[in-house]
Amino acid sequence: MNIDSSVASRLAHWREKPSDMVRELFGVEPDKWQTKALDLFPKSPRMAMKACKGPGKTTVLAWIAWNFLLTRPHPNIAATSISGANLADGLWKEMAKWRNRSPFLQSQFEWTKSRIFAKDHPETWFMSARSYRQDADSEQQANTLAGFHADHILFLIDESGAAPDALMPTAEAAFAGCIEAHIVQAGNPTHLAGPLYRACTIARRLWVVIEITGDPDDPERSPRIPVEYAKEQIEQYGRDHPYVMVNILGKFPPSSMNVLIGPDEVREAMKRVYRANDIAAAAKVIGVDVARFGDDVSVLFPRQGLQAFKPKRHRNIDGVQGAGQVARLWNDWAADAAFVDNTGGYGSSWIDQLLVLGKTPIPVEYAGQAHNPSRYYNKRAEMYFDAVDWIKRGGALPSEEHPGMSELLAALTQTTYTFKGDRFLLEPKDMVKAKLGYSPDDADAFVTTFAEPVTPKPTQRAISRQARADYDPFANSVLHDVVQQSMGSYDAFGGQ
């Protein structure tokens, strides 16, 4: 460490200008926006960094934490994130990284997995890692930052774009009982709620907000986001796409980022209708979701091109019965393929029985590898995103009054996603079930129809009738066809 005359004089200077501490203690030059954030910190009780993905915001939190530990007497720091794992892999690892860069910090501070403390005063001079359980209620979340009593207190919230509002009242209470208190948060603008959103909107007058962008057209952009990458993402998705707005531009999207699709878009799909000749060239596929527990439903969901048809739903059906239902639909509808969810082996008896019946179903492992593993964490995420893209491209769903369709709408619009590295990852099915109050069986069967591309059989299809939103491949009686055609409005779903 470079020291001009004495440690005390440098610490006094670093307290007023933290960016110089970074230069002298760590030997690095902060980016322009990082310098701004660092040097605004001493006079900012509340600071929020609203950022695109990857500009080094967690690094700034670590630098601020080390500055506070070094330049205040007996400080208390509490750090939290959206999960204990995220805190450990993000900010806490970053704290260790910079300690290892400085012999001075190594001589003065001890680092453990849950606490960093001054060797001379471990009880009163420290930084503590705080986390809350994912199923914690608001009261338990509020207690995450409770219990700090010191003259100098700092609260750090990493990934605050997805953090709960319940964290804030306890942190705010510190301003009433100490000489100096700060709250510093950093995150991506993924949600239209929570501490980051509030700091940037409703409570903006109380906060110093640092905005960091990767916009290739902005001269103030972060140099850590490659220009070519940013341009590619904008070209691929458009500047107004939520993914681009959040991860490239660092802006709040018009709706919450981590929801797959909005209810209005799904309801529009439930109003669309395609004529039979519009979809005649497309393959006929069946998605099968096998019930795992007694309150779950086994679902057979047929789809042909841009038209999905009303599903068959069964409770308390075994593999022999289920395979029989699939085989019947397969034959009656002349399907080209059937995909059976075999995650955890639950569909194995259905698959075995279908093989006995001379059918060749395609097993689907939701936890398996996606076709595009660089973009999707697993097969489940890929299928859900493909299904949502299908809806946005004009896909037609059965009308909402059909059994299972309100459940389908809820599951599609309430299933959320995050990122594992650079890949999309859906929240676990058990969490979706807990949120909805039932298993998303209809949605799983529907998205399973997107498991693999299918080529239609090279046979002439006898299609001369009009398809409607409630078209029913289960109704195939010749008499039914004749009667319905004589009425001038053939409804293939209406007879059974």
UniProtKB/TrEMBL annotation:
Organism in which the protein naturally occurs: Bradyrhizobium brasilense
Name assigned to this protein: Terminase large subunit gp17-like C-terminal domain-containing protein
InterPro entries linked: P-loop_NTPase
